[in-house]
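Notebook B, p. 112. Complex prediction, attempt 2.
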Amino acid sequence: MSTMGTPTDSTGKSLTDYPRPSVAVDVAVLTVDEVLKVLVVERPDGSYALPGTFLHPGERLADAATRALRDKAGLTDVVFHQLAMLDDPERDDRGWVLSMAHSAAVPAADIPADAQLVPVTETADLAFDHADIVRFAVDDLRRRCAAEVDPGGFAGESFTVLDLRTLYEVIYDRSYPKDTFRRHLLHGLEPTGELRREGTGRPAEIYRRRAAPLPSSTAAFLLQ
Amino acid sequence: MSTMGTPTDSTGKSLTDYPRPSVAVDVAVLTVDEVLKVLVVERPDGSYALPGTFLHPGERLADAATRALRDKAGLTDVVFHQLAMLDDPERDDRGWVLSMAHSAAVPAADIPADAQLVPVTETADLAFDHADIVRFAVDDLRRRCAAEVDPGGFAGESFTVLDLRTLYEVIYDRSYPKDTFRRHLLHGLEPTGELRREGTGRPAEIYRRRAAPLPSSTAAFLLQ
DNA sequence: CTAATAGTGTCTCTGAGACACTATTTG
DNA sequence: CAAATAGTGTCTCAGAGACACTATTAG
């Protein structure tokens, strides 16, 4: 790096002398719809990829990601995070393109009806290295769900413990004993005082998420 | 994104029509030398920054980081990881420069004698947003040290439990009870069978790290 | 009543944490 | 012997996990 305010790096070479990579952003939008799925968009050649775009001049990565989600997938107000920078020089046939991978978790209800969702287990033929991004995103989601109750809001504003357990069993692809699950996850919930009566059986209490992070013992329980 | 093999994006605009950012890498090299410190290099204007460099054409980020560590800090064979992409368009006076922040942990003994180390608590006047990178790196180090015994090898090949406890007390900036610390960390250690006699008192057993990851209960203990 | 689902009392067993003890050295 | 440091036996208490029980509904 060099003296601030001068257009040279520490070797005296002008910054503009370096050929520069294109920089892209890609977002793995995860949702739960029976199984864990990821949103994909069709490309001109008929293949599928995660929604993404090139970074515009002076634009921030987060703004580019927001733009990609809006323009390619019709999604707004999505919270996302950086995952990793993908930098294989051969990853894009069109040239030297780095991509900042992001992940987001969006309730199925908030995803436009015409969007295409594929199970995260069936991403082998996504374009570029996007199957890798999906793997990163699933790992990231599991870590987040172990630290906080349903950070993506998959279960909506309020829900029963059974709703939540069913959700977590999908996300972690395993089952949990109902009593231990309840006692663990209650630490991150607060009762609304309402009940859900549905079919036969005792009505279920309805909870909402508490801001508090889950204790690390809960993370240990969820992650096995 | 666009059809593979064609030089246009989905709007039909050529890739080369977009002005592109410069991409840099910066590495926060952490070490423990009485306190937790980070390696800095002096810049031509006399200010200090983390070692970094611009990405060369077709180069991978990891290779650029390796090059920066070798050329700017005289370090080789360092293991590092991506932390985050810093993308404030105003972060570098010289123009539009994105930087991939990395972290590494290196034993003090492996750092060249002429390198400059500053405590991680005194990074406020580093150039650019490098103080932010140091914060990310310290958080990252603490997470890694809770998942595995001394992943940076700060304590060397072999060490006593007291060595390790002293090290962890520096990294986490707190103290730990000796018996509980011992019982927890022993899960990630294997005895060498050797003893260290030093001054008065019973000789200490010497251990080395085991490959096994620490149980999550140990992470909970270390992180409070 | 039965069937069905929600939620909890409670037992057991593990293990964290704390204290104080034993073990092994030097002088 | 005393002083110093390393390591452990053990007690207590909290809590995870499992089982079976109670609670509350529909029919």
